[in-house]
From TrEMBL:
Lineage: Eukaryota, Metazoa, Ecdysozoa, Arthropoda, Hexapoda
Gene Ontology biological process terms, A to Z: amino acid transport; sodium ion transmembrane transport
Keyword presence, Metal-binding: yes
Sequence similarity: Belongs to the sodium:neurotransmitter symporter (SNF) (TC 2.A.22) family.
Keyword Transmembrane helix: yes
Protein's UniProt name: Transporter
Record keywords, A-Z: Membrane, Metal-binding, Sodium, Symport, Transmembrane, Transmembrane helix, Transport
PROSITE patterns reported in the protein's UniProt record: NA_NEUROTRAN_SYMP_3
UniProt xrefs under InterPro entries: Na/ntran_symport (IPR000175), SNS_sf (IPR037272)
One GO MF term: metal ion binding
Transmembrane portions of the chain: 6-32, 53-74, 80-102, 122-144
Subcellular location: Membrane
Record-listed Na(+) binding positions: 19, 22-23
Length: 160
């Protein structure tokens, strides 16, 4: 038996609460900082109120997660919006927009201006050909291996 087990359990769960609060603080603060930096004249004088409003809004968005159907909503959000597929789409379109639309040569010039070192042709190949092709391959593999979302015995409909 662990000596002082109730004390260790209390410390452990206190650590979990502090870790959760810290994680949420980082997420909310990065979002609020981005918004305030985007509209400094309107939001900087009211930063505290804006932060409180965002916390209340995010709390209200989380309330459905603690209802009877919350596990189903959470599973749906976890499977589709927090999966690697969404991140893959964002990375794919960022890579295409930077390397093909903005132009890889211009991007190399920007990197040279910022870093003082010009990236070699390997990076050009990676940005223009290798990274998009790899992401398309992963997407096709995902489509072939696709299994609809389910929670326990419940299978979500196709439109979910």
């Amino acid at each position: 038996k662990l000596p002082g087990a109730p004390a260790w359990a209390a410390i452990f769960f206190f650590m979990l609460v502090v870790l959760g609060i810290d994680s949420e603080f980082c997420i909310v603060e990065s979002f609020v900082t981005g918004m305030v930096d985007n509209w400094p004249d309107q939001l900087r004088p009211h930063r505290g109120k804006f932060t409180m409003a965002m916390c209340v809004l995010l709390f209200l968005l989380g309330v459905p997660m603690v209802t009877h159907g919350g596990a189903y909503i959470f599973q749906l959000m976890d499977y589709y919006s927090a999966s690697g597929m969404c991140l893959l789409w964002v990375c794919f379109f960022q890579t295409i927009s930077i390397s093909w639309i903005f132009g890889a040569d211009k991007f190399i010039d920007c990197v040279h201006q910022m870093m003082g070192v010009r990236p070699n042709r390997f990076w050009y190949f990676c940005w223009v050909i290798f990274a998009p092709a790899t992401m398309v391959f992963i997407f096709v593999f995902y489509i072939v291996q696709y299994v609809p979302a389910k929670y326990g015995p419940y299978v979500y409909p196709d439109w979910a």
